[in-house]
Amino acid sequence: MKKFMKSMKKFFKTMKKLAK
After folding, report:
1. What integer pLDDT is reported at residue 2 of this predicted model?
2. pTM of the full structure
3. How confident is the model at residue 6, as a pLDDT?
4. How do residues 1-20 score in pLDDT, each as one tens digit?
5. Which residues contact residue 10 at a Cβ distance below 8 angstroms, ignoring those fewer than 6 apart?
6. Residue 4 to residues 1, 7, 14, 19: CA-CA distances in angstroms?
7. CA pair distance 18, 2, nearest whole angstrom
8. Could you give the C-alpha distances from 3 to 7, 9, 10, 20, in angstroms and in order?
9. In angstroms, rounded to a whole number, what is the distance separating the alpha carbons of residues 2 and 17?
């Protein structure tokens, strides 16, 4: 579960970067 949360955080960070 912890690993999953870390991955999601990284994923959202990337999405924010791509959105801009």
Report:
1. 92
2. 0.29
3. 95
4. 899 999 999 999 999 998 87
5. none
6. 5, 5, 15, 22
7. 25
8. 6, 10, 11, 27
9. 23
